[in-house]
Amino acid sequence: MNGLDWAVLIGYFGVMVAIGVWSHKRVDNVSDFFTAGGKMPWWLSGISHHMSGYSAVMFTGYAAIAYTYGITSYVTWSFPIAIGIAIGAKLFAPRLNRVRSRLHVASPLEYLKNRYNLPTQQALAWSGVLLKIVDVGAKWAAIATLLSVFTGVSLNMGILITGAVTAVYCTVGGLWADALTELGQFIIQFIAGIAMLVAVMAELNGFSTLWSVWDEPALDGHTKPLAGPYMMVFLIAYLFIKTFEYNGGMWNQAQRYMATDSAKSATRSAALSAVLWLVWPLVLFFPMWVAPLIIKTDVPADSYALMAEQLLPHGLLGLVIVGFFSHTMAMCSSDANAIAAVVTRDIMPAVSRKVREWDTRMGLLAARWATLLFLGLSMAIATQVNSGFFDDIITVVIKWVAGLMGPIAIPLMLGLLPWFRKSGPTAALISWGLGLFTFWLVNYPISWNVDGGVPLQYQVSIPLAVSLVLYILIGYVKPEDTPERDALIEKINNDDPGSTSTAVPAPAGAAGVE
């Protein structure tokens, strides 16, 4: 990097902070901070939904998969995400919007107290928060790794820089700041992605590179849709996992649906995100697929960064680096906002009576402090993400998140649907608890005693399968549907407009949060 690249990077950070400060005037209460007051346009929600699903892990961990296995990286990652979001556009997006508009909540988990009971809500809230701290920590480490490749800045300093800038804009401006910065980040990464694609084609055979390189020996096996540990069982499991996760199972995506003005807008938002997931990753992945023709490296995770350094002129190189930051900051800021919503709306009111008596000012202040606390903890975890315990970045993101997300998300997501009305708190808690236990059992005791360990596809799929089967089966063996639960499910499944107020009440017993 030279002075021009640094100017682009510093300018980007400045714009992100400025958007956060500008968004501050749009945040008057908890509803504005967590769900944009239900006033976000569907197209902005869709772009925000798409951008908040990326991170720099794509340019490190998934770049390694692309460098090693080729198109498998698309077939087993962005393609199932696109299909999952398309399914959720009709199945989950409108229902999550009605959770806000008809039940008047600000957190994706608030409705669980009535759908199941308080212990179920707390179990899902605490376990999800802990998982997200680790998940976001991996993403800080990924962007810091890239920054280190380009600038020589240490891993910890890179984590501190990106985390501090993100903390400013998402703490000040809430979900509005997240969405508006994500729009800017989308424009930046669009330009950067096209620039990288053009540079790679110019280095090889021009436009014909798109179809003429696949017989090269260095790309042997790169056209196989499934390869290595990413086989059919992994693909099917990943489709199920991402259908739950990217439609709200890990909360930040749910907020994008909740933030729109209607169930119809939420559906349109999801459809836009699904199209972007289907098309745009092809542009980003192609340079990674053909990278073995341009560079040789023993560290495939560095391949995209090394290729950018070799091919791009200064200025454009800075823009590509900004693109790396934009992905990670978009995802981490959206996660921080979602976690703050769960902590202040679901966890703290259950722990302290005083919280239930907070006024508007205290509720908003707590939301901002919770955001800062989450970012600080995840940054601390990031400094340890390459330790022996976590193994490496891609292990955390694929194995931990994919394997643990299912048990946490299944009661939340399936609880929205009328076909599972008989599954109550017993089904939810047992499916959650045994799903987490299964993850530990498969990934550690069993894996330690199997030659070569348990294959990745089973590490992530078995916990999901156990939770899914138990949730449905226990619902039929021990049905816990009640008139109150049936009425709640009917309210979020009924197309009748009904109540569309966007006001968000305080946690039980509080006053003045609206």
From TrEMBL:
It is found in: Cell membrane. One of its GO terms (cellular component) is plasma membrane. GO terms for molecular function: symporter activity. GO terms for biological process: sodium ion transport. PROSITE patterns: NA_SOLUT_SYMP_3. It is a multi-pass membrane protein. The keyword Cell membrane applies. InterPro entries: Na/Glc_symporter_sf, Na/solute_symporter, Sodium:Solute_Symporter_SSF. Belongs to the sodium:solute symporter (SSF) (TC 2.A.21) family. This is Na+:solute symporter.
